Amino acid sequence: MMKKVNFLLLFMFLNVFARAEEGMLIPTLLGAFESDMKAMGMKISAEDIYDANNASIKDAIIHFGGGCTSEIISDKGLLLTNHHCGFSQIYSHSTVENNIAKYGFWAKNLAEELKNPGLTASRMVKIEDVTAKVLEGTEELSGAEINQKIMANIALLKAEATDGNHYEANIKPFDYGNSYFLLVKETFKDIRLVGTPPNTVGKFGGDTDNWVWPRHTGDFSVFRIYADENNKPAEYSENNKPYTPIHHLPISLKDRQVDEFTMVFGFPGTTNQHTISNELDFIINEMRPAQIKMRDLSLSVINAAMKKSEATQIMYAPKQARIANAWKKWIGQIDGLKRGNAVAKKLNYEDAYAAKAAESDEYKEFQDVVKSLRELSAKYNSSDFTYNMYIEYVYVGSEMFKRARAINDLITLYKEEKTEELAKAVEAEKEAMKSFFEKYDVNIDKEIFLMQSEYYKNTIDTAFIPASLNEDLKDLQEEIFEESFLVDQEEYMNVLNNFDKYAKKKINKDAGIQLFTELNDIFRNKLLADLRVYYGTKNQLMKPYVKGKYEMYPEAKHWANANSTLRVTYGKLEGSTPRDGMKYTPHTTLDGVIEKYNTGKDDFDLLPRMLELYEEKNYGDYAQDGELWVCFTGSNHTTGGNSGSPVINGEGHLIGVNFDRSWESTMSDYMFDASRCRNISVDIRYVLWMIDIYGEAPHIVDEMTIVR
């Protein structure tokens, strides 16, 4: 009887959570889903989406800066992505005298487009399943020999893929090593800013609206790819020309329809759909709340300082956005997972899985894996907590630690007597520290340090607290921020200019260096070994756990966790009913922008031009039934990295730019609920209206292929 109950629970789980909208699909596997996609309204073929040998939609999908997605929208390499994806570049060109972040910017011609050193844009050339080739010759091996053979096979395959061309190749494991894919890409290095709306559009709603629906944010920015005279990637040069793409996306101005087919094509970062139940419980109730609190503290200082000074606002806006984005996401994630009873559903699924595995010797490999994963999580959750708090404190908190890490790297080279490498590293650090101190306020950092140090000290196990934090924290704060060279640009440069002299003794006497060294030593000597065992063993156990899902339930819809590789997700333009008594419509309009502005809140501020155009109802060709759509929601499964991804209709035309999820949807990194999880996109017609009419830059729209 118990087996029947468990199987019934599993059957219900699979039917609820394997809806068509779930999953981030590898493009080469789309053929298996083509009929389902066409049943939902897709009119193009799987080969129109991905074809390694002919022009296809995938050739217009670009990995932007390694962390976002963008799409090519003209035959001159025009690149569309999110405002928040181009945020750092926008602010790097902003000054108090010429604040393009505040007022917007549109280049009038190619000569006015702004260069962005270090920014890259990568096109996926080919994706190939190379599992058999990677595992070739490992059948008779065991232990470390297997990994050595796999590494040798991977090196050979990468060399073959890049022989005689300018491409880069990587081979990534999928499903914890149950499969391997070769990823060949072409990376462009001359990417210029063409235009951005003002912050009052691109960041409209601020932290108030972040991860929230209804949304009215014009979250977009425009760049351009440049190439050499042969249309190949090249470093920045005045002689470079706009890139001629293999494919660019046509843009649809047609009226939108509720329930019409939508496809999001991009580079989603990370999902964790296989997380075991007690680990998820730990994340919800222990780890995330502590991480949120650490960011509460730093944001309270940064937000207050930014309100007092425009110069500080320019200086700290990108940092604030990076910290706040995950902070608010985690708050919504906890809420969504609790409301969705995620832990209980995971428990039921795992129990049913274990019962199914116990039914037959055919599934012997999977019989103990759930039990082992649960035991592993219970044993190492505390180590994982300490590690994540260490990351929040040393890598996300006080920026003083950033310079301490840089000095620590130099000290390592000094001790290893790598003279040439040290000299190069010192010169590189001289350049890095200049840009660092241009965006650094010691008083802000000083306050963040004290607040986070107090919470860190009171939260983690005493065995992991460095000796310096056991002293009076205000005294330590004063010693570091009044005397340490780490927070003083002139003193820092003096140390770099005389590094051999200072490296012998003086550096190690610095209070900031001493604290970082203590933290780093604790991490390496007390924590790292446990983490290696935990993560290594978890990956080993996850491989058969996931394999069991494929083999025991072959009819279920399976997909590999996101890992920053090119994926397709499909769904519909639709609203949602996330909780009792609440129903969300699938789109918002400019009327809602004005309504929010009228509340008087800072996050809903507007420049006068928006109010003027609204009063005139000057919507050009971009309205639908007299309304200017701003954003819409869809049932596409997205995550971080999908920011900037194109939303494509059934005809293969661009209708929007993905930029967020609703608050209830942030749970989808761990568990997708088709009834509540919605991605949020800015309507492409609002983008074009902002460029053409608001921004008075019709020449940019003229480059595009418009479908009416």
Automatic annotation (TrEMBL):
It comes from the Bacteria. InterPro entries: Pep_S46, Peptidase_S1_PA, Peptidase_S1_PA_chymotrypsin. Residues 1-20 form the signal peptide. The keyword Protease applies. Its EC number is 3.4.14.-. One of its GO terms (biological process) is proteolysis. One of its GO terms (molecular function) is dipeptidyl-peptidase activity. Keywords: Aminopeptidase, Hydrolase, Protease, Serine protease, Signal. Belongs to the peptidase S46 family. PANTHER family: PERIPLASMIC PEPTIDASE SUBFAMILY S1B (PTHR38469:SF1). Catalyzes the removal of dipeptides from the N-terminus of oligopeptides. This is Dipeptidyl-peptidase.
